[in-house]
Amino acid sequence: MLDTGVLMAYAQGVDALSEAMVAAADANATVAVPLVCLLEAYSLLNHTEYAYLSMMRRNPAVRVLTPALQVDRADGCPVAGGMARQAGRLGAGHAAFVAISSAAGLITSRADQVRKVLGDDWPIVEV
Predict the structure, then answer these.
(1) N or C: which end of the chain has fewer CB atoms below 10 A?
(2) 51-69: buried (b, 16+ CB within 10 Å) or exposed (e) per residue?
(3) Considering the entire predicted model, what is its pTM?
(4) How far apart are CA 32 and CA 127, in angstroms?
(5) Per residue in 100-120, pLDDT tens?
(6) What is the DSSP string of 49-84?
(7) Which of 22, 12, 27 has the alpha carbon at shortest distance from 109?
(8) Which long-range CB contacts under 8 A does 7-12 form with residues at least 24 apart?
């Protein structure tokens, strides 16, 4: 699972994410990207950096995830929104929501934000 800061780092050429992507592909694992984090990254990057995110999204191991949107039944929006309030940023909240929903570890550039939601024992890698 990747958050906004990690997506931005990848778009700016930081190697740590490339290594994680290769490891995931070798293990036939999925790399989850919360949609809010992807949109947040695009909003913070220069348009010349978009190509890196497009390339990452074409990787068959990458899945962009959205919260369930079922207003008349249980959906993920209220929970993800509450987690965002606790984390202090919308992308961090959605990343924490997807991590919990998927029982997945999280690669982040702001462990302090997601730890507010996930706690100290959750598998978090800070880059």
Answers:
(1) C
(2) ebbeebeeeebbeebebee
(3) 0.87
(4) 17
(5) 988 989 999 899 999 999 999
(6) GHHHHHHHHHSTTEEEE-----TTS--SHHHHHHHH
(7) 12
(8) 7/33, 7/37, 7/38, 7/41, 7/53, 7/56, 8/41, 8/44, 8/45, 8/109, 9/109, 9/127, 10/52, 10/53, 10/56, 11/41, 11/45, 11/49, 11/50, 11/52, 11/53, 12/45, 12/49, 12/52
* Position 52, amino acid: Y
